[in-house]
Amino acid sequence: MTFSYGDAGIYDRRMAKGANLLSYQLYDGASKTNVLKDKIDAASNEVLAGTVTSDKTSPEHLSFYLAMPRYQIKPDGSYG
User: Fold this and answer.
1) CB of 21 closer than 8 Å to CB of 15
2) β-bridge partners, 67
3) Distance between the two ends of the chain, CA-based, in angstroms?
4) Is pLDDT above 70 for 43?
5) Which position among 3, 39, 57, 67 has the lowest Cβ density within 10 Å, counted as fewest Cβ atoms?
């Protein structure tokens, strides 16, 4: 599984609500050492890997971490 950078154009990910921006990043683990990237840009340690079975009885669980810098004082609401 890979993650695009969306509208940002780089992996400095941000969510917006009008002119207000919230910075965040996606990592493969709690140590926050490997930023998850899109397949075209990613090294092997920058994607989530697993196995999909055809029997559909064994769900695959992949974990990732979303981290946001502290003290981003912004208006409440929905950011996308």
Assistant:
1) yes
2) 25
3) 21
4) yes
5) 57
Pairing of strands 25-27, 14-17: unpaired
What's the predicted TM-score (pTM) here? 0.77
Q: In 3D, which of 17, 9, 25 has the Cα closest to residue 69? A: 25
Per DSSP, the residues of 17-77 read: ETTEEEE-EEESSTT--SB---TTT--GGGS------TTS-S------EEE--S------S
**What is the rounded average pLDDT of the residues 29-38?**
91
Write down the residue that tokens 């207000």 correspond to: 20
Closest CA to 4 of 53, 40, 37, 42: 37
Provide the pLDDT for residue 58: 67
Place of tokens 């971490």: 65
Burial class (CB in 10 A: 0-12, 13-18, 19+), 36: buried
Residues present in the chain in total: 80
